[in-house]
Amino acid sequence: xxxxxxxxxxxxxxxxxxxxxxxxxxxxxxxxxxxxxxxxxxxxxxxxxxxxxxxxxxxxxxxxxxxxxxxxxxxxxxxxxxxxxxxxxxxxxxxxxxxxxxxxxxxxxxxxxxxxxxxxxxxxxxxxxxxxxxxxxxxxxxxxxxxxxxxxxxxxxxxxxxxxxxxxxxxxxxxxxxxxxxxxxxxxxxxxxxxxxxxxxxxxxxxxxxxxxxxxxxxxxxxxxxxxxxxxxxxxxxxxxxxxxxxxxxxxxxxxxxxxxxxxxxxxxxxxxxxxxxxxxxxxxxxxxxxxxxxxxxxxxxxxxxxxxxxxxxxxxxxxxxxxxxxxxxxxxxxxxxxxxxxxxxxxxxxxxxxxxxxxxxxxxxxx
Length: 368
Description:
alpha+beta
């Protein structure tokens, strides 16, 4: 069961990576990063990536943030948290629909269906299971089990989307333009009332809470500036070697603990500069660089999110951080560490075996 859940989390992460690529970079960095991490779940009547995007735009529309916080990097831990929460909720969703399914059955159907609820439901019915619950109740159950900020609103949204053909006509699976996002926003705002809190967040928080949030933001901005600078340098080296001229769309995964903290592994989406293709999908990259100011050539490769569970890295797996690595390339963590650990000679072999115990996995809201 534990291994299946880990595989499911890999597939869920791939869906979120695709959703980040298909949202326009400017609105993603300005506001949609927040709504995606708060309520951008895969629930809904469409495919998982489309559902993430619709839920993200819907939440940004109906529950706008009180202040702008523009980012160039998605917090790795926050992204992992919503992926874990979504897995909780999706399992609860199917269990609410079928009272004859076990949790193992649900996890298996989701794995075979690539985390798409509709095919999973169809397979369950083909195997003789009969729907015993109502969809609106199942969506409510999913929202509660995934700690959605507004479970009732999510249930209403998902049921309403089933009747909204216009939304589906606006979405055909490509990277969205700003005008298409605005069209979706207008459709959703016309159907759902915008919720504005009577009190500003600043009026609710205590002085210590405000100071804590300010310190966290400052730390994040310092880290973001460092990783963005390093990623841009790595991307520039890639362009010199392979041709093309790219700019970073968004940084979507960081592991700063490679080689005992001396190096970092990073994923980011990048788009061609001066591209004349509207809605062109960005390209996913992997980079490895040192964590100091020493002049050392970085590694940078174009990768595919489809290979997320087929290429391994000892350092990233050790720290529970999901980074897409390049196939057939040499990087820190791809060498002999796995063999050394398999023979019980690695310094963290016992720690790894404990961290992978079934009772520990998914025991908290976050995988970290």
